[in-house]
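Memo to structure team: turn this sequence into structure tokens by end of day. - J.P.
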Amino acid sequence: MRIRPLFLDSRPGYLGGRGRSGSLLLVPLGPRTLFEHLRAWLEPLTPDPPLVVSAHEADDEYGRWIRAVCPTANVATTPDEVADVVAGYELSDALLIIDPRCLPVRARGLSSLLQHHSVEPRVAHHLVAFKCAVAGTKERVSFDAAGHIRRILRHYEPSTWSFIKGVPATLVPIASGILADGVIPESLADLRQQMVARGLPSRDVALKGGALDLTEEAGLLVANEHLVRQATGSRKTRSTSAGPLYVGEGHLIHKTARLAGPVVIHPGVHVDENAMIVGPAVIGAGARISARAVVAHAVVVPGSAVPCDQTVSNRVWPENAGDRNCFEHEPLSYDHRLARVIEEARSDEHDDKTEGSRSANATQVRFKRAIDVTADAHPSRFARPSTAPSSGRSGPNMPRSQAPDAHP
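Reply from structure team:
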């Protein structure tokens, strides 16, 4: 019996673009792509290369980018291609289907899924993530036929909590025939319903530790902020005040550019004169931060460009964002902001228990939230000065390794 991994790729609207920039699997997640992040989780579980399935206008270039991250990956963009690959598997094998739109906070859930499968391999097992609740409770009002209030129901997490957020992963036996007919499910929640309709046995496995909704911009921001603090702090004393982390090669950082706080710079990034990047922030591969632009608490997707004098704050900057006015971007709603704070607190709580960094993490979150609230209330106080800082020096762009004032 072998575990065959399969990734369902998607294109959330906030990413925009096509090819690499619009793919959720290829979006930067801390110092790696989301694809590499998931592959690292799977290494202890299965040595088999993944099958990447994308039914959203994928082309030959898409397959090239996927194989650049994982040369052994199989790429299928049509139902027939999926059926052809699955037909080569043994009936004793099992498909580990992962939908990164619902991303577990920790990898422990995938291993628990395999443990349940080893006990009963004939049954499909769905890793189910439950919604997070404010203060761990939720109230519902029950009405009678006349419209009068019958009672108020209070649900407590987790004892009487039954509200599902999504299905991050499913482990299904090849013998069940799922995907053999070339039908690609829109999500694992849809696959779960298809299996019930076909009378195939399945069981739910509760995910412990929570999950992030990457169909929403706020979910990707939370995931990146958590991993950026983790990656930049790991090089020193786990403090979140560490400087930028450079991944790969080909960086071109102007000597007057300023990088503050935990920042991850992917390969081939250009940062022009007097630009500012304030962490937590991630700059995707091949992106360009133009002169005097400000990027703060944001994610810049691969291959995109932030125009001169542009401010990008608390958002994901897609490849085609430079063609639109930044003020057309709708700010995060109250619900999204609240969910973001809750997820950050839960991630920090986990780090505190495992790494003993409660003081540093708590300080970082409080300081960051104070900046966010103040900036929203008084945007003029955070406007960029028209002149370069006196400490900066003018001059041509230079490779990071040669620039005398470049960040380490």
